[in-house]
Amino acid sequence: MLLLITIMLSKQLDVLSNTHRRRVLFALAERSPYPDRIDTSHTVETDGGERDQTIVMQHVHLPLLEDHRYISWDQEAQRVTKGPQFDDIQPLLTVLVENQEALPDGIVPD
């Protein structure tokens, strides 16, 4: 049982290791239990300056989140909703938000 918990936590931390993925998950968590979908078509600041988020999100981050079943992604409408496994990562998101003052800047979006 401990091995299963360790593997699950490791996967969750890997998913949360990227700012863009954290922002998507935190945005969905903040809207709970209200509208649980977000628009992914805006731009974000990246290491190379501003880039169209659609490229990065469509080819890297959203597919990974969808593979883990934390989100459901409507590619045509560019809408993300909570996936069937979102409740599995919700407690970790809550812990991060509740302890954000103890974390380095940027871990939990403002």
Description of the structure:
- With 110 residues, this protein is of the alpha+beta class.
- The protein has one domain (8-90).
- It contains four helices and five strands; from the N terminus they run ααβββαββα.
- It has helices at residues 2-15, 19-30, 53-67, 86-98; strands at 37-39, 44-46, 49-51, 71-74, 79-82.
- The chain has a three-stranded antiparallel sheet with strand order 1-5-4.
What layout of secondary structure does this protein have?
Layout: H1 2-15, H2 19-30, E1 37-39, E2 44-46, E3 49-51, H3 53-67, E4 71-74, E5 79-82, H4 86-98
Antiparallel strand pairs: 1-5, 2-3, 4-5
Oligomer: single chain
Order of helices and strands: HHEEEHEEH
Task: Note poorly predicted spans.
Answer: 42-46
Number of strands: 5
Shape: globular
Largest sheet: 3 strands, antiparallel
Please give the share of residues in helix.
40-55%
How many independent structural domains? 1
Instruction: Report how far apart the termini are.
Output: 35 Å
- Radius of gyration, in Å, reads 14 Å
